Each structure stands twice: as structure tokens, then as C-alpha cells.
């Protein structure tokens, strides 16, 4: 199947509310751009508080109606059927996402197919949610617990892996019996609408999955809505703080998967071929636009110069270009704003004393003269306070730093506000597992990088977020526990004495 990167006037999307397309109540729209061509790609509804209210209302009605009346087993089966539908349409979904965020079609296609595993896993957990019987000293009491859905959950998704991150967030939410309003990034809104349409085709009742597209105002209205019971947000730490503060005012909890400044640590005894591939994948795959990007490479001093030479040589050969072509290894960054940020961060790092080893500027791709391409970049001579060691770039920019021993590198790796992920490359198993315990990160990869699975918890320490995605316990975050007491005896109790 062939897909075009060119602008198509038919790329017009409304909101998806209660099983139907719904233009913005006030008729406003906004445009998205194709980062490969730099041209307008599509037009979307620019939602207001009125649109958000309609979506939350539809979700609440579905919870009180057909979705709430379904057995957990039937609910789980519908989730699995939805996963099948998404896998069937993976080609189209991947092409939509590549056209909107510039990531490689091959990666977007893999992600669109992988989400089937998430929906099967959590669909299978839907009827494994169980209460308990509580034993009491007073044997006439029958006390048990029920675990019930929270209600309407808001899911706010970024632009870097839209389908994958949407389904990763939604799967435990739906398995727990909640309904959803999705607010996708304004950069990549199309796939969220398409996913909701496929949910309808799979038989998921109307109103269970709703999508409101728009800018910041739509997201704020969703966070502030009084009928939203929980918020799942993936994005930057500044946005996460604002959402947590707003949610706290309503005593609503959040799951936040935020930024990272992940260290990739290479010891002298590592398999250098594997380590080289892992460091390159950690920062240049997806043009560095991933929350777990290994943007700090700590390399033990005995191998520092030759390993850096290898990284520089390989980075200089990375093929930039059309992300739809199999031969392309790195596409553009997703937005003009991100492109400008990459340039700014490199300039700041240089002002702080760093030096460029390769890249450091916009890249010229003749086929796409207006595309948002940035060269794979490596810098060294970074002081401890350099911005590249403290702040998330979210672009293809790597800082390399030498170290001598384990204690030194652990201190340096942990010296950041973030704690999402870390990589360790070594043949020494004792060292590997010791490092895993001392690194302040929610995920530690040993002799691998960017690995993830539906049944393994994922989330961050420190400023990298709250709560966990994936794994059996993720569903607990979207349930509330009710205690039910039943007195079985006919004895009349003293009305002025508490029953114990």
C-alpha cells in the first residue's frame, strides 16, 4: 500500500463524541503541519469548554448505561476485538502518524500493531478484578469489599507515539470499567479520532471512548471538569505540575508520565558493538523524541576516546530523509518549535563551554527543503552544570562524559531532577545488579535499551512522574474500594455504643 506525504484537503477531523463526529460548538478549527514537508496537513476542531462538557457527559452516560451494565468478561472481549481492529488498520494509522510527527513509518507501524498485545492483556484482566472477605472477631458480621470504577477518566496524550501511548494509558482504564475522554496533542490528533472510530466498529458502546481535539484551553477544561474522576497525562514536567496542581484543588488523583534525562552508562568491559548500537538507539531513534531518550552517555575512561570516535563516525552516517522510506534512519523533528528548541539548547551548551563533535545544526534534505530536520548531534567537554546534563532536549542531541568508577558515575547519573530510565552496559553481573539498585530511575535496562512490555511496570522517579503504566497493578490506579458490612445476628445493639 502506498501513502503520500503531500497535503490532502480531505484531512479534516471533527471531535468524536458519543459515537459521532462533532464539530467544535463554536465552529473554530486549527491546522496541523507535516514536519517532513513543512506544509499544512490537516484541519481539526478547536474545542472549547462546551465541547469538553459534551464529551464528559457522553462518557458519564455510557458508564451509567451500556458499558456499566456489561459483565467484566464481555468488556474484556470487546477490548480484544478493538485490538484486532487496530492491528488490521495498522498501515493507515502508521501513515497518519508519520505524516503528522515525522517519525519513521516502520516504527509507527510496529507500535500500531503492538497495541493489540496491550488490549489483549488488559482485556484479560478485566474479569480478574476481585474483592475480598474481611475476617472479624465478631463472627456475626459479614464484611466484604467491592472494587469499582472511578468514573470518567481524562487521558491527555503527547505527539511522539500517539497510538501507542493512548492505548497504554487507556487499557487499564477500560479494564477497570471506566469511560474515557481523550485529548490528543494538537500536533497528532488524527489517529486518536481513528482509534475511537475503530472502537465503535469493534462494538464498544458509544460514549465509552470520546475524543476532543484542540489547543491548551481544551486540555485545561478537561482537567478542570467536575465530572472527571482521574487524569492520565503523558508529557513534559511543567505540564504535569500544572495538571497535578489543578487536580489537587478538586481532590482528584493523577497518573503522570513526564520527562527524562536518562543516563546510558558504558563500562570498559562491555560488549562495545552492542553498547554502540544501544547508545545510538537510545538517542537517535525517533530523532531523540522519546521520554526515555538516553541523552547522557557516560563512558568509562579507558575506552572513552575510541568509543566516542565510533559514536561520532556512526552518527555522521545516519540517513536523514523521507520517513516513509525503509532506507531512512531518522526523520524530521515533529514541530518547528521543537526544531528551534534543538538549536537553542545546542547554543546554550556551547556557551557553557561544550564542544561539538558532530552535527549541531539544522540538516539540509534536498527533497524536503522546508522540512524540520536536525542533524544527529554529539557534544563533549560538558561541565556538571551544563544545560545538556540537566534539561530535557527531546531531540537528537547527545552529551558524552567520561567517568572512572562506579561511585562517580552513579552520583553523576542521579544528579538530575528526573528519574525515568537508565541503561547499563557491562559483562559484570554483580556490577550490573548493584547499579540497578543504586540508580534512581523507574526502569533500568542492562545490556539493552528502549525495551518495554505490556506486563512490566513503567514510570518514573522524582520529576519523571507519579504512578505506573503497564503491568498487573496498573489497573488498581483506576479502581476504588467499597467496604460492605452485613450484620447476620438478630441481637439488638446498644444504639449509643459503636459496634466493634
UniProtKB/TrEMBL annotation:
Q: Where in the numbering of this chain does the Aldehyde dehydrogenase domain appear?
A: 26-484
A GO MF label:
oxidoreductase activity, acting on the aldehyde or oxo group of donors, NAD or NADP as acceptor
Annotated catalytic residues:
257
InterPro entries per the UniProt record, alphabetical: Ald_DH/histidinol_DH, Ald_DH_C, Ald_DH_CS_CYS, Ald_DH_CS_GLU, Ald_DH_N, Aldehyde_DH_dom
| PROSITE patterns documented for this protein | ALDEHYDE_DEHYDR_CYS (PS00070), ALDEHYDE_DEHYDR_GLU (PS00687)
Please provide the record's keywords in A-Z order.
Oxidation, Oxidoreductase
Q: Tell me the superkingdom of the source.
A: Bacteria
**Entry similarity comment:** Belongs to the aldehyde dehydrogenase family.
User: What protein is this chain from?
Assistant: (Z)-2-((N-methylformamido)methylene)-5-hydroxybutyrolactone dehydrogenase
The protein's gene is named: tgnC
